[in-house]
Every structure is written in C-alpha cells, then in structure tokens.
Amino acid sequence: MKNVQIIGSGFSSLSAACYLAKAGYSVDVYEKNDSLGGRARAFQQDGFTFDMGPSWYWMPDIFERFFHDFGKKTSDYYELVRLNPAYKVFFEDNETVEIPGSIEDIYTLFDSIEPGSASNLEKFINSAAFNYKASMDELVYRPGNSILELVTPQTVTRVNQFFSTVRSAIRRDFTNPKLIKILEFPVLFLGAKPENTPAFYNFMNYADLVLGTWYPMGGMYKIVEGMIELGKELGVNYHTNAQIEEIITSDNTAVGLRINGLVEYSDIVLSGADYHHTEQLLNPDSRMYTEDYWASRTFAPSALIFYVGFDKKLYNVRHHNLFFDEDFDQHAVQIYDTPSWPDDPLFYTCFPSITDPSVAPEGKENAFFLIPLAPGIEDSEERRQHYFDLVMSRLETLTNQSLKEHVIYNKSFCVDDFKSQYNSYKGNAYGMANTLKQTAFLRPKIKSKKVDHLFFTGQLTVPGPGVPPALISGKISANQILKNVKHELKHANI
Ligand SMILES: Cc1cc2nc3c(=O)[nH]c(=O)nc-3n(C[C@H](O)[C@H](O)[C@H](O)COP(=O)(O)OP(=O)(O)OC[C@H]3O[C@@H](n4cnc5c(N)ncnc54)[C@H](O)[C@@H]3O)c2cc1C
Q: Of 280, 430, 471, which is best to mutate to test ligand 1, by the most ligand atoms within 8 angstroms of its C-beta?
C-alpha cells in the first residue's frame, strides 16, 4: 500500500486525508500543535468552549457534498441549526439592521430601507445564484492548472464580471449606504477589498442571503471532530505535537519528512501548512516561488482576536454581530494600502452561547471578538490591550450595557501567534486573497513543478480562503495525487 504523509491538520488536510484513505492509500497526518484542526482549533477554559478561528458556517451544500462523497451526511456527525436572524449589523448613527433568515423577509427589509430596492436585489440575487451554481458545480473543483479551466458555457456569457468589481456592481443598483455595506460584507471573506474583487464573486451574496448562516451545535470544532472520526473510520493515522522540520528529497522527488528530528519515509508528501512555510522546508533550489513573489501577493488580513467569558448574559446582541459604525474604507486602507494599526476599527463579535448553552456555563456568555488587521504589522501586548479597551467601550455604548467589570476570562491571539502557532506568512489569518490576479490558475500550484511527489493544499492554493474552499482544496489535491502519481492501485476520480 502506498503511503502519503500530510503536513498539518487544517480542514484541507483533513479533507485530503479522507479522500486518499478512501482511494486505498495509507495516510499519516502530522500536526505541530497539540490538537488537530489548524486555524479551526478550539480550547476549553473555566467551563467555556472557544472556537479559535472560523465561526460562520456558510455554504452548507459544500459540507453536505463532502460527507456525501463517503456515503455519509453532516447529521451523522453534528447537528446544524439555521440562525434567524442570521446576523445583526450596527451602523454609525446608532441604527441596527438584523438580516432575517429567509430571502423573502430580506426583500421586505431592503424595501423598507431603500424603497424599490427589493426588485434590484432580486435581479442581483438571480445573477449571484447563476454564478454560485456555475462555480460550485464545476469551477471551484478544478485544479488551477490552466486558464482554460475558467472557460465554461456559463462563464463565457459573464466574462465582463471578471473585469468589473463587486463594488461597482453593487453601487450600480443600490444607493443606500447601509445596504451597500451589507452587500459588500460577504466578499471580505475572500480576503480583499470589494473594489479589488471580481464581480463574478457576487456568489458570496447568494451564499449569505439565500443559503443562510448555520451553526453546528457544540461549536465549529464539531466539524473538525466529524472529519477526524470519518478519517479514522477510513484508516487515517493522526499525529499531534509532530513538527515537520524538513521535506526529504532524493533525485528531485519527495521521499519523506523529518519529524521532531527523526526521518520517516513515504511515497508522497502533501502539505496543508501555509505554502510559504512549506517551501522553507525544502532547499532553496527546490522552491517554486521566490521571496519577491510572496512579497508581491495580496494576503488576506491578519486579525486581533479576543476569546472572552462574561459572568452574565448580554442583551441587544445576536449570535453574529458586525460593527460597521466606523468608516469601512478607511479601515480597509489601513489593512491593504498603508499597513498600520487601524485608528477606528470595524470589528466583529460572535456570541455562540446565545444559540448553544453548551459552550458557556449557565447564565454566562461566550464571546469572540475579531478586528481585521494588515498582515505583518508589529504586534505587542500594549496594542492588544488598547484595542480590547476600545472594543469594550464601543460595545458598551452601542448595546447600552456595562461589560468591562463582567469579564471573567480574556485571552488574545494576534499576528505573532499566527506566525508562531501556524507558521503563517506575515501572520495572515486566512491565506491569500482572491483578487483577479490571484484567482484560479493564478494561485500557487497544487503540484510542485520542481519536486516530484510533492503536493500542496489549503487556503493559499485553489480555490482560496474559507472552510468550504478548504474542504474543496483537499479533494482537488487528492485527485491530483491520484492522477499524477503512477502506482499499482487502479483509481477512478474520487
Ligand atoms: C480567525 C479566523 C476566522 C475565520 N473565520 C472563518 C469563518 O467564519 N468561516 C469560514 O468559512 N472561514 C473562516 N476562516 C478561514 C478558515 O478557517 C481557513 O481558511 C481554513 O480553516 C484554513 O484551512 P487550511 O487547511 O488551509 O489551513 P490551516 O487551518 O492553517 O492548517 C494548517 C496546519 O498546518 C500546521 N503546520 C504548519 N506548519 C507545520 C509544520 N512545520 N509541521 C506540522 N504542522 C504544521 C498548522 O499548525 C496548522 O494546523 C477564518 C480563519 C481565521 C484564522
């Protein structure tokens, strides 16, 4: 039986491991940290369960499709609930908007904010639905080897949407600033500014407004646990505290890994660790991309995160809350154009214990705060404390309640932690942005062109940042391995 060694245990690695084990490989997953899940790890403290990374469960069809590939359903592993309202948005004039959990109610909401906008939204959503279907049925599952992969009967009718931006498309049809912010928010998940994101990506609005926001009871880590359980059923071996120090090559072929000082051999190496870091595990001649290449890419933001326990239940908030009460564009400039700590940051909070009593002790609230930041900026305890105080004060004012004296647990995570805990390039939180110049075949390659039997997966490859793309990336990489590596097993596509 051929053996594959997988570096890292993020969603892309967990996904690839399942597909490769199903195809008959012996699979070993090596994770440097003491628990599996990568950026989606969780930890428990004082009766709270904190998800450390993703909190938005979007595109439920992609998760369903993943488990279906193994004859399973998400409900075999976790219980999903649809959130209604999906989320709450706070604006600068003390106004708030709650996004309902059904598209019909969203049409009504739009009309109430900008009379007549529901019909524009319907047209916009129809276009987004078309793009979603064209992408998810085929495009995003392609390996990014050639520009021709983008040419389908659906995309040729929409070429203009690759050269116009989400921002211009939204501003053509909507004038109310609140609606514009609501519609521009979903593409932030792709890691770039709406004015740098092709209009074709409006399918994120379909994901948001039509497919809805879901939550796995017990927390996002339930997805990780489900995938590990599935992997174990398929025979995958998982190793934690397993730091990969070198990819061993012979005759330009990957033949194994140095793990905590010991060399273990294999037939194939697949890395789900950050791409830049993985290439540092090779000698410089074997790397495909130079430091200049990485420095010239647009990376998704880093983040300052606080995991907070409150000794009381909070009011005037929902499970997901977006604070757009400061200037959206100015914060974006400080992330992408002149990297610096934001003067007046936008931020996001999640209170999963509003939906799920199991993640906090009775009568208490579990909170996650996130401020997007420029990757690579200088991190310090003083700065973290400054922003914690700032966020608490703003939340107190906007929700009209006292909070600071109710904090019973607070842990921060920022640029330096992304670097030290995940070997993340410049401390990026979720990989490389999906701009026009960094889409599909223009992203770092799945298969090394310099080292045979070495493959990559994860948020820096195709299709890009986010949990659903990571699941897809794992499938694409597994497929590329099956197609590219000659061996005795007879495989069909998985
Ligand atoms: C704060 C935050 C919030 C997010 N919110 C959302 C959200 O709400 N919804 C959504 O869909 N997506 C969200 N994302 C994005 C999503 O979590 C990621 O895109 C996805 O989890 C990335 O998976 P991955 O497999 O590419 O990489 P990772 O999860 O980064 O996995 C890589 C793994 O490799 C390990 N590793 C690195 N170097 C080595 C080494 N030398 N040896 C061994 N192991 C190594 C790392 O420790 C890590 O575990 C968020 C991300 C963050 C950080």
A: 430
| Gyration radius of the chain over CA positions | 22
In angstroms, the Cα distances linking 327 to 96, 178, 322, 324, 460 are 16, 12, 13, 7, 29
Considering 209, 239, 271, which residue would you say is the last residue of a domain?
209
* Whole-number average pLDDT of the chain: 95
Peptide bond into 361 cis (omega under 30): no
Phi/psi region, residue 363 (left: phi>0; alpha: psi -120 to 50; beta: rest), is left
Ligand 1 contacts CB of residue 55 (under 6 A): yes
Q: What pLDDT sits at residue 138?
A: 83
- Asked whether residue 159 falls in the same domain as residue 141, the answer is yes
Domain end: 174, 209, 244, which one?
A: 209
Query: Which residue matches tokens 């660790």?
Result: 273
Q: For residues 358 and 90, what is the distance between their CA atoms, to the nearest angstrom?
A: 27
* Assigned domain for 128 exists: yes
Whose alpha carbon is nearest atom 13 of ligand 1?
Answer: 54
Q: What angle do CA 219, 225, 227 make, to 5 degrees?
A: 120
Q: Verify that 64 and 136 share a domain, yes or no.
A: no
Q: What percent of the chain has pLDDT over 90?
A: 86
CATH code for the domain of 229: 3.50.50.60
Ligand 1 in contact with 54 (CB < 6 A)?
A: yes
User: 265, 5 in Cβ contact below 8 A?
Assistant: no
Q: Residues 173-224: pLDDT tens digits? A: 999 999 999 999 998 888 888 998 988 899 999 999 999 999 999 999 999 9
**Residue 276 falls within a domain, yes or no?**
yes
Residue 311 has pLDDT above 90, yes or no: yes
Task: Name the residue with tokens 């993703």.
Answer: 54
Mean pLDDT value of segment 288-313: 96
Q: Is residue 155 part of a domain?
A: yes
Which residue range is the domain that position 129 belongs to?
105-209
Quick: pLDDT tens for 351-401.
Answer: 999 999 999 999 999 999 999 999 999 999 999 999 999 999 999 999 999
Report whether 432 contacts 459 (CB < 8 A): yes
> Which helix or strand (DSSP H or E) is residue 182 part of?
helix 177-184
Residue 113: CATH number of its domain? 1.10.405
Number of domains forming the structure of the chain: 2
